[in-house]
Amino acid sequence: MPLVIAMDGPSGTGKSSASKGVARALGLRYLDTGAMYRAMTWWMLRNGVPVEDAAAVAARVDDPVIESGTDPVTPTIAVDGEDVSGPIRSREVTNAVSAVSAVPEVRARMVALQREIIGDGGIVAEGRDIGTVVVPDARLKVYLTASEEVRAARRARDLAADPGASVAVVRSEQARRDRLDSTRKASPLTRADDAHEIDSTELTLDEVIEAIVRLAKELQ
Ligand code: C5P
């Protein structure tokens, strides 16, 4: 089977930039599964579904049509034909996504869609449960970490346009999201036993990409 690289880890570790860089370096496709959960969350909020009500979310799970592109240079995400790549990064969506992604019906639908897109492979897929649930037999699994300080600073930079987004606020929101993502019943964030753990705290983005590309080449 063509290569599947499963990239998992908490938020703010540089997972997206590293995943895209690795995909470009190796000529692979790229899938951002977090964007899919965000797209689902954006749709729920827009349609007035109370996101803390798991039954209400589950009842609407099949309604939005979510389409995810796989080009690492210009990743796209659309809901019902509308480009939502900007709106899914809002703090409102960021703070609601853990509740929505904890709903088993949401996960079942997303995982099915993700497996369809991953197909025969040739792809870098990033998320929280790629190596454990979505593609447990992926040839290369990476679990990316970074210190809490570095992660919060990176997230604050991402949200620089938002005046309410101080490092302290982002840090506490991120801690809450990580706690929810790691303690939910349905496929919590956890490192697969056979994943290579890379701590990006002291590494540049290029160094992270190089380390993963090296691991991929060792497999060939
Ligand atoms: O990676 P990103 O920060 O965009 O992910 C947003 C949220 O989507 C995560 O906090 C998590 O709740 C959810 N997620 C997930 N499983 C994945 C990817 C993301 O539950 N595979």
UniProtKB/TrEMBL annotation:
Q: What is its subcellular localisation?
A: Cytoplasm
List GO BP terms, alphabetically: nucleobase-containing small molecule interconversion; pyrimidine nucleotide metabolic process
Q: Does the keyword Repressor apply?
A: no
* Record: residues binding ATP: G9, P10, S11, G12, T13, G14, K15, S16, S17
Q: Which SUPFAM superfamilies match?
A: P-loop containing nucleoside triphosphate hydrolases
Q: Which keywords, in A-to-Z order, does the entry hold?
A: ATP-binding, Cytoplasm, Kinase, Nucleotide-binding, Transferase
MF terms (GO), sorted A to Z = ATP binding; dCMP kinase activity
Lineage top rank: taxon: Bacteria
Q: What InterPro entries does the entry give?
A: Cytidylate_kin (IPR003136), Cytidylate_kinase_dom (IPR011994), P-loop_NTPase (IPR027417)
- Major localization listed first in the record, in broad terms: cytoplasm
Q: Which NCBIfam families match?
A: cmk
**Which family does the record assign?**
Belongs to the cytidylate kinase family. Type 1 subfamily.
Task: State the protein's name.
Answer: Cytidylate kinase
Q: Which organism is it from?
A: Actinomadura namibiensis
Q: Which gene encodes it?
A: cmk
